[in-house]
Amino acid sequence: FAAGQHPDFSRGFAARPDAKFAEVLKGTDLYNGWGSICYRGTDESFKDWSCGEGLRCAGVHESAIHPGFGTCVSEAGTAVGDPVEFGEIKMSKWGSDQYCRLSPATARACAIDSARDKKPPIKLAGYGAARQRYDNPEQKTGGFPGGMLRKASCDKLPEEASCGRLAKTGFNDCIGSGKDHKYCTREFTKTAGLRACDKTHPCREDYICTAGYEDLAEAKPGKGTCIPPYFIFQFRVDGHPRSWVQDTE
Q1: pLDDT along the chain (249 residues), means of 10
Q2: CA–CA separation, 189 and 231 (whole Å)
Q3: Cis ω on the peptide bond leading into residue 104 (within 30° of 0)?
Q4: Longest Cα pair distance anywhere in the chain, in angstroms?
Q5: What are the residues facing 71 on neighbouring strands?
């Protein structure tokens, strides 16, 4: 301000590497790559927050507080790991937020009617869509922020995918019963084609990269898979029960 210049508000943001590292990070997804934070607004500070070739900037969770920000996703079509639900966050007052899904449209304004709710349309044979909300509260299934495209099996995986594990019905109850995490992961998970990841190709926001699964023949060497963090770390805003059983295996 003192020099009469426009301040660069992007400096110091942990969400995206500084532009000076663009050349060093070329060939990775850490800068302008899949899953990177991007910008479609008019603030000069963030005008260079674009996406690389073959990607587009999509607003997964739009917000009037942070207008114009999005996530770099596949441009040609939905790929494994891409979001399949898009919406906006409305805040009526501080601490009172409401998520409104815009696509696919909800049966009621900003609400989910489980009896009439439209699921994300997936036209690819052998693929499925993990959703942001519970599919069925009685099943105690987990939510995937923004939804996520996955391959139903680990057979004939596309380049961007690897074979990984997802929690299935019974996983949460297993953890809550006091059994150790390795047992619950072994007994209450299923395999699927998930987004492959590593140190230079991280997951998109709200997801973590697991270690690779050496016991799965279809898993790609040196690659983990992207899943919601509470599937592994077991922290949830609704107070997930903790297991104090010592893991001795």
Answers
A1: 61 73 88 93 87 93 88 92 90 80 74 62 79 59 81 94 89 80 85 95 92 92 90 54 44
A2: 10
A3: yes
A4: 63
A5: 37, 58
Do 62 and 87 form a contact (C-beta atoms < 8 A)?
Answer: yes
Measured between alpha carbons, how far is 119 from 248 in angstroms, rounded to an integer? Answer: 42
Query: How many CA atoms lie less than 13 Å away from 154 in the CB half-sphere?
Result: 16
CB atoms inside a 10 Å sphere around CB 157: 19
Q: Angle CA(84)–CA(194)–CA(31) in degrees, nearest 5?
A: 75
Strands (E), 107-228: 127-130, 148-151, 161-167, 189-197, 208-209, 224-227
CA-to-CA distance for 202 and 198, rounded, in angstroms? Answer: 6
Closest CA to 81 of 108, 55, 106, 109: 55
Q: In sequence order, what are the residues at sequence separation of 6 or more whose Cβ sits closer than 8 angstroms to the Cβ of residue 103?
A: 85, 86, 87
Q: Which residues are CB-contacts of 15 (< 8 A; sequence separation ≥ 6)?
A: 37
Which regions of 86-188 does DSSP assign to beta strands (E)?
86-93, 96-103, 127-130, 148-151, 161-167
SS3 state of residue 100? strand
Integer Cα distance of 121 and 106 in angstroms: 13
pTM above 0.90, yes or no: no
- Per-domain residue ranges for the chain? 151-249
**Backbone φ and ψ of 8, nearest 5°:** -95, 95
Distance of alpha carbon 25 from alpha carbon 214, whole angstroms = 28
Q: How many CB atoms lie within 10 A of CB 246?
A: 7
